[in-house]
Amino acid sequence: MDMRTLPVAIHLGVAALVLGACNGGDEAAPSTTATPTDPAPATTTAPTTAATTTAPPTTAAPPTTAPAVSPTTAPPTAPTTPVAEPGTVVAENGFLTIQVAPGWTVDGFATDTGRTYEDVSGLVWEASFDSLIELVSLTRGGSDGDIAMGVFREGRTGLAPGVFDWDDAVAALVGVQPNVDLTVEWAGGRGEATRGRVGESYARHESVQIGDQLVSVLALSAEQPTEEIDDEVTAMIESIVVDPTALLPLAHALDTRVRIGEDTTGSTAFSVNVLVPPSWTMPPDTELLWTDPNPEGDAYIEYLTVLDPAPLDEVLSTELDEFGYDWLDVDPVITTIGSDDLDGAAEAIVAWEGSPGEAEAAIIVLSDEVAAIIVYIWTPGDPATLSAMIDSILVEESAWVTGG
What's the Cα-to-Cα distance from 348 to each of 345, 367, 403, rounded to whole Å? Predict the structure, then answer.
């Protein structure tokens, strides 16, 4: 598939888990009064109004100062489910598998993979305990002293640096004072191993990168580990298997939003949210378009708005006739999204460029019978992301919710 012309009249150029920045602004005025800094989009369907992509309310960014780390305390991360017996542990729906040596206790492991999102684009990654998702936590007691071991991954994939910079940043966050650094390979990835200290404790910290996933191990002990214990840690690290495909395609994402306000609709607001990959950005000259910064990809999501719409299928039919058939490379496959999947807030219909699950482009129309929002999405070479983006659609406000 070659480059596609954007549905709007102007072809716009392609312009760690820390919540806190906000990208929104005041609601845009109708297109008759729009200012040059707040343009109204052009559509081929019905009279349109300008709407703004505003981020949902955010919370203040948590402090990133490292807490005191004891030999039996791993960095605070995601909740885990405690278990007691060693053996094979599978975490995050198969993302990580580890063989636990005899004599070790599994204190907890992550089960399901959650979806996390950030409200704006352009955020800079920095090492943070909130960005580290704990997969497995282990302890071993004995006459030679206690030792604690945790396996965790980076939650802000797509924004974090390469493995060596990430390893250094996380080690500094934890407070590792290195004595020896080595290059290592395990779990099908390559990275760095560090021996040193965290305060008065002995530390072993290793990180590898598998695809775009970053995984680390941290082992802390009050006493110098014996050769036997060190061999057990090595064996467990070497037993780790990582399957990046087990994670949700948008396990880490940005939340885009378009909102038609009450002043524009004359009755009630209508807002639609769609998650996008964390590397996507909003060009500076529009608030209705998000793009992949990779010039080879040209992927994007674009919102158009319609007031006083016709029935849902008629809105889609008109859009296809006037622009959509030319934009799609093949005749579309039409499916619907039930109101239950949108929290009962609206209904939606999808025109896929081919079979759902295999298509790389789609047009989605959502309506609450007061306003309609048309969404164009193109993810060349990545049908899984397209499907995930459509699955992520959420309607927060609509006439159906308020009864307007």
Answer: 10, 7, 18
